[in-house]
Amino acid sequence: MNLESRVAKTQKSPEELYNFLTQVENFKNLMPDDTKFELRGEDKFLFGLKGMPEIALGLKDKTPHSEVVLGSTSDKLAFTLTCKIHEASTGSEAQLFFDGDFNAMMAMMIKGPINKFLDQLANGIEKI
To answer: Which domain of life is it from (predicted)?
Structure first.
């Protein structure tokens, strides 16, 4: 299952946004207030969305100033969340990509909450 957010625009430079996103504790600032968030080390965190099980994400890969990849730490819900960063005239633009391998039933159940979550993260990026 592949999902993507809208393009989020921020006044931060690509370098500033990249540095912000590679510090996983900053993801708490991007998430809705009602989301459970718990740091699990220097590069991992646990979060819980309403209607879904808690999920642990860890920093998997990063390309300076252009891409940050987080991945699930569980084999049961294996997916990646990638943020691609591009320079824009007034700062930078970011787009989030969710890529997971789920059976049809699971994909149908989580598609709505994941799309909403991607939109909320995009909104959070625009507010930082």
So the answer is: Bacteria
Over the stretch 32-47, which tens digit does the pLDDT of each residue have? 888 889 999 899 999 9
Q: In CATH, which superfamily holds the domain spanning 2-127?
A: START domain (3.30.530.20)
**So where are the chain's domains?**
2-127
Tokens of 125: 């990026």
**Nearest CA-CA partner of 83 in 96, 64, 100, 65:** 96
Mean pLDDT for the stretch of residues 71-86: 92
| Angle at CA of residue 93, ends 42 and 12, nearest 5° | 65
